[in-house]
């Protein structure tokens, strides 16, 4: 068998031309297209990684901001709760002080009204007692009221105990002025003379005596020798009445401490 070298050469040439054409027209465009596509993919991947990193950074930033906001919110809530608690305590304290002030004011007004009522009641009762005593003395004594007062005073002065008489004598020895005698009703000259003789006999023989009136004695006499004072008046009749009045007042819901007028002697 003979080899047609011309045909072989032609086939080789055709094969090389085919390879060159494939390389030129098919393989290189395909590889170039693949390279370009790979580059685009890599670029997009890089952009995606960058975007992902940016998103993660933004997410972290937002997370930090959220934590900061939560912390600030908790702090604001704590401050608000503390402020509300302080305000409540302040309002409660102000309310307590206001209620206490109102209570004191009410008690003061109540005390004033109570004292005024008690004073008017005692005054009215005292005048009634004076009227009753005056009627009794006028009906049964058979003499004037002032004379009865003077007689009673002289008897009481004569019957003073030794200690009270000693105090009056000592006061008279130290006194610079006269003895003072005050009565609830005007005394007649005879009654004044009777009292003056009793004072000279029992206290100070040479002292002068001044006379005056004091409606507050409520049918009685007061003897003032220097700093010593002796009083006999109808006030002792008011002691029991005032106790009864206190019970009535306390029974009506008003409680107070009453200072009773001295009914016998004071020094």
TrEMBL record:
Species this chain originates from: Halovulum dunhuangense
Superkingdom of this protein's organism: Bacteria
Topology within the bilayer: Single-pass membrane protein
Entry GO CC: endomembrane system; plasma membrane; proton-transporting ATP synthase complex
Transmembrane segments: 6-27
Role this protein plays: F(1)F(0) ATP synthase produces ATP from ADP in the presence of a proton or sodium gradient. F-type ATPases consist of two structural domains, F(1) containing the extramembraneous catalytic core and F(0) containing the membrane proton channel, linked together by a central stalk and a peripheral stalk. During catalysis, ATP synthesis in the catalytic domain of F(1) is coupled via a rotary mechanism of the central stalk subunits to proton translocation. Component of the F(0) channel, it forms part of the peripheral stalk, linking F(1) to F(0). The b'-subunit is a diverged and duplicated form of b found in plants and photosynthetic bacteria.
Family named by the database record: Belongs to the ATPase B chain family.
Gene name of the encoded protein: atpF
Name the UniProt record assigns to this protein: ATP synthase subunit b
Subunit structure: F-type ATPases have 2 components, F(1) - the catalytic core - and F(0) - the membrane proton channel. F(1) has five subunits: alpha(3), beta(3), gamma(1), delta(1), epsilon(1). F(0) has three main subunits: a(1), b(2) and c(10-14). The alpha and beta chains form an alternating ring which encloses part of the gamma chain. F(1) is attached to F(0) by a central stalk formed by the gamma and epsilon chains, while a peripheral stalk is formed by the delta and b chains.
Subcellular location: Cell membrane; Endomembrane system
